[in-house]
Amino acid sequence: MDILCLLIWPPLLRWAAGTALSKGNASLADEAFGLVVGVGAFYDVLMTLGPGLAEVTALIGDPARANMLAALMDGRALTATELAYVAGVGASTASAHLAKLHDANLLSVVKQGRHRYFRLASPLVSRMIEGIMTFAAIGSPPRYRPRSTNDTAMRLARTCYDHLAGRLGVALADALVAHGHVVLGDDAGELTTAGILALDKLGIAKDALRHSHKRVFCRPCLDWSERRPHLAGTIGAALATHCFDHHWIEHIRDSRAVRITPAGRAGLRSAFDIELG
Hints:
Blueprint: H1 3-22, H2 26-61, H3 63-71, E1 78-79, H4 80-87, H5 91-103, E2 107-112, E3 115-120, H6 123-138, H7 149-156, E4 158-160, E5 163-165, H8 166-178, E6 182-184, E7 189-191, H9 193-202, E8 219-222, E9 229-232, H10 233-245, E10 249-251, E11 258-260, H11 262-272
Helix pairs in contact: 1-2, 3-4, 4-5
């Protein structure tokens, strides 16, 4: 709806309601007053949320800040120097960008000695960025971009905040669903009794699978490269942690991509019947 219409309609409807009431047309007055309430509520929401939405999208829309946020999507905390490198900017410019992102509650800071490490402030922030990245890859007009070695590695296996994505992430989701360990809906998922037993046998303790009001327990997350869901939430994070702890996967420097180790190929084959070329 055009902003001008939103500015004009509420007072116009109030005038119509008052005129109808003065002429004794109560039903028309009630209808007009109902429209006033409806449009007024929508107008209030727009005026409240609109500026905040514009502020957040403006922050994310800057290329340097977008690169910083994308680099932090692997769940790790990085220094200002590392983020300056991925953003392609100088130290002072990086500090200014990071201050803006921190002030907007998009980033949090962890201090260790003289060093300050930046990370995404919450899973809510990662989901927002994840959704934008997925739309950019799938929903936006196609653009030609030559494939690189890192692209191939990212499509095979990568971290998406604290869970796994790419062919590996989708394969894990497919395996759990096929064995009846997880049931996935459009927006949420459920770990079955058989799934709890299977993960316990794998060595993922029940403590790692506790429900929390702070985050979603299990949900499908549309994978931008595979265009099919991988697992996010507590379950996805527990699987990723297990793979890292058992050295099935390892980080690739300066990338969200992860490398599947020989031990990982054997472990994935044994535990999930997963074979990735």
